[in-house]
Amino acid sequence: MSEAAPPRRIGKRLLRLAAILAAILLVLLLVAGWLLQPQRAGGFLLKQLGNSLGLEISASAIDYRLRGTPQLVLHDVVAQRPGDAKALLRAERVFVSLPWRTLRTRGADLTVQRVELDAPVLDLPALQRWLATRPPSAETRIPTLVDGLRIVRGRIDNDDWRIEGLSIDVPSLHPEQLLRARVRGRYVATPMSIPADLAIAIAHPRRLLAGAPTGVAGIGSLTIANADWRVPARVFLAGPLRLGKDSALMKPARLGIAARYRSASTDMPFRLGLHGPMAFNSATWRFVPVQVFLDGDGAIPDASARGSVSVGRRLVLHLDGRIAAWPQAWPTLPAPLSSSSSPMPFALDYKGSIDFADIAALELHRDATRFDARFRLPAVLAWLDDIATGTPLPPLQGALSTPRIEIAGAVLEGVDIELDDPGIPPQAD
């Protein structure tokens, strides 16, 4: 039987226990007081996050809730690389809700309840400068968003273009499951403006961000427009997509467009299909090589071609193909050309603004007849609209050669015709 502890030893133990309890209570009070100061606690969190990312992150006001599912709300957020003249991200409001298990595992479990951004502005050049300083990551991790992501009134700024009115709605996100998203916004590259509303599906988000090819499909509406005309369209795009550091490749891509060309006096529907590898870098989409299929009405012919298409700040085309038949809306051909049903091989080259306002070059053949021309498409379309009352000569520079033409009962052989429009400058040698 053990001997009872003397009263003096018991007193010392009680005093030690009381001191420990007092210290624990003091620490709890200090922590509670710190947590009840959102600006101080949030500022500490932002500093820690910024240090890990190599950024300076600030907010004018910080609120959070710990009851239930923890929530953090940041106002007037600015994220900027030290020494950079521009912030890579600004946002009026950032809302993050994440379960307790994510906090307890300190990020080992990347489950987030919901993320919201109000009026974010992303500066693309500043983002690229920051990405260039980041070390390569051994693992690509993306979070699970239980209740998804919402972005409203967003904007992406680049040196010579921007996307404004950006809205993104993702109902939920799981790295291994099909992702569905709704994306709306307006691409602006003066004088062009392209509003778009698209539904996008990504088969395997983790594979996409890891740089592996993943099935992606998008469908929706967009409108290409300037001050004089507009082309509203329904579009469909699908194919295996691979993302690089600052590029993307879909190989092969299938792009379908059903659209109408509308101006003050013109309304011409057409369908356009493109098939081939599609690459994106330096703010330019490139289809090289590409198969092109055009199904037109009115003055737009039915045609197919192969070649290359680049769309960005400028439009670059090089196409070789065939026009199936002479459109009825075009001027009537003299005999014997009018009686021929032969397809018309053509070559089209263009390099200029996306609205086709610069000069295009066209070579067109039918049987033994050859036509070479340089023209501006808007001017030719306007001439076709007024052909019944306007000049019979098209606004183009070119030459026609044919072995035989019948005009008003007269037969002309070995015909060479040259057209010269003062609005088309001579071709440089």
What do you see in this structure?
This protein has 429 residues and is α+β, with helices and mostly antiparallel strands. It contains six helices and 24 strands. The chain has helices spanning 7-35, 38-53, 100-104, 124-131, 205-209, 377-385; strands at residues 56-58, 61-65, 71-80, 89-97, 111-112, 114-118, 121-123, 144-145, 149-157, 162-170, 179-189, 192-202, 214-225, 230-243, 248-262, 267-281, 284-296, 303-311, 315-323, 344-352, 360-366, 369-375, 396-407, 410-419. Strand 13 and strand 14 (230-243) form a beta hairpin. The chain starts with 6 loop residues before the first helix and ends in a 10-residue tail after the last strand.
- Mean pLDDT, all residues: 84
Q: Give the count of helical stretches.
A: 6
Which regions have little confidence, pLDDT < 50, spanning 5+ residues? Answer: 27-37
The 3D shape can be described as elongated
Largest sheet: 22 strands, mixed
Q: Strand-residue fraction?
A: over 45%
First CA to last CA: what distance?
116 Å
Radius of gyration: 33 Å
Order of helices and strands: HHEEEEHEEEHEEEEEHEEEEEEEEEEHEE
**Helix vs. strand class:** alpha+beta
Task: State the share of residues found in helices, binned by percent.
Answer: 10-25%
Q: Give the beta-strand count.
A: 24
